[in-house]
Design goal:
Elements (H helix, E strand, L loop, with lengths): L5 H9 L7 H13 L4 E2 L10 E3 L4 E6 L17 H24 L3 E6 L6 H16 L2
Parallel strand pairs: 3-4
Antiparallel strand pairs: 1-2, 2-3
């Protein structure tokens, strides 16, 4: 059972940010500190990537564990289960479709999971891999 009324739950969910989240801000800072230059939130590229660099043909998506159905940390709400299962499955399908679109155009797609940003060790590993992939282009 939900602790909020239907109206209050709708209000809470409408306040979930589509951009400028804590995890995006952390990645933005990591990119800036590493010297990598990426633009923020394209309105024209498929899937509206969180970060992109046209010259490097690279897009970065920062995926939260809940909204993108992380197999390790994603949680399934106890109320309206059918709706949420369908919603998260649609998000996962769309993520795969977007990846395919970029791969067909020979762009590099990087997806960073929310849970990987909680550890400094994993964060520095992500930046190392990202720089290595970009340097190889």
């Amino acid at each position: 059972m939900d602790i909020f009324s239907i109206k209050k739950r709708s209000q809470v969910m409408s306040n979930v940010k589509s951009k400028g989240s804590k995890i995006e801000i952390k990645v933005k800072k990591m990119l800036r500190d590493s010297g990598l230059r990426f633009r923020y939130h394209s309105k024209t590229l498929p899937g509206k990537p969180d970060f992109y660099n046209n010259k490097l043909k690279t897009v970065i998506f920062v995926d939260s564990c809940f909204w993108h159905g992380c197999r390790y940390h994603g949680s399934q709400p106890k109320t309206n289960e059918a709706f949420w299962l369908n919603k998260i499955d649609r998000n996962k399908r769309r993520d795969r479709e977007i990846n395919s679109i970029y791969k067909e155009k020979n762009w590099h797609v990087i997806r960073i999971w929310e849970h990987t940003l909680k550890s400094d060790e994993k964060t520095s590993k992500i930046m190392h891999l990202l720089k290595r992939n970009i340097d190889s282009k």
